[in-house]
Amino acid sequence: MPRVAVAVAALLATLLACSGDTNATDSTLSQASVPRTADSSTAVVATPDTPGKPAAPACVSEGAWQVCSVEKRLTDAGFVPMKQDSPAADLFAIRGTEYALGPARLHVYVFETAKARESAVAAIDTIAIARRGTPATWGGPAWLITSNNLVAVLVSDNGRLVERVQLALTAGLPGAAH
């Protein structure tokens, strides 16, 4: 009988602790720290250093590719893209971003337009995935993936991972959530 009383007392104590007021004054998130927005295209967050200065717009989730939409698409596909400190390989005139996807490496290049991407890809050796006349230096099997204004080079010998990344990046342009 004493064990039952202890179990009931512990259950009641747990229920009372979990049913506390969520608007308690000792909350670590204050009302002032929650950003307010009037327009979804730009957010205005007042800080002591820059009162009323508009913050950078959030990632636009539809239209042409952006680095943030690539990251979201990879995350939605079940990957954990880890942005690397080193820039992507010097394949194009624009700066790329390198991600680690487990043991694989993904080099992402986002061009202003699809036409700019087409011109840049036409200038490289698409079999070796290197500038014309230079050897490939990927360090493993490399796969060229293109979609609208995006070029990605995936370095991996894992066929399933290659297929998953290809499907994630070629399944259509970033779209608004429905």
Number of E-state strands:
7
Average pLDDT, to the nearest integer? 77
N/C terminus separation? 55 Å
The poorly predicted ranges are 15-50
Q: CATH architecture of the domain at 67-170, please?
A: 3-Layer(aba) Sandwich
What overall geometry do the principal axes of the alpha carbons give? globular
Task: Please give the count of helices.
Answer: 4
Question: How much helical structure, as a percent, in the residues?
Answer: 25-40%
Alpha-carbon Rg, integer: 24 Å
Briefly, what CATH class of the domain at 67-170?
Answer: Alpha Beta
State which percent range the strand residues make up.
Answer: 15-25%
Quote the CATH topology of the domain at 67-170: Protein Transport Mog1p, Chain A
Class of secondary structure makeup? alpha+beta
Provide the succession of SSEs: HHEEEHEEEEH
Largest sheet: 5 strands, antiparallel
The strand line-up of the biggest sheet is 1-2-3-7-6
What do you see in this structure?
With 178 residues, this protein is an alpha+beta fold. It is 27% helix and 19% strand. A five-stranded antiparallel β-sheet has the order 1-2-3-7-6, with helices on both faces. Strands 4-5 form a two-stranded antiparallel ribbon. A hairpin with a 2-residue loop joins strand 2 and strand 3. The radius of gyration is 24 Å and the shape is globular.
Brief synopsis:
The chain has 178 residues and is an alpha+beta fold. It has a domain at 67-170: 3-Layer(aba) Sandwich (Protein Transport Mog1p, Chain A).
List the topology elements:
Layout: H1 2-18, H2 67-76, E1 82-87, E2 97-101, E3 104-110, H3 114-122, E4 124-125, E5 130-131, E6 142-147, E7 150-155, H4 159-170
Antiparallel strand pairs: 1-2, 2-3, 3-7, 4-5, 6-7
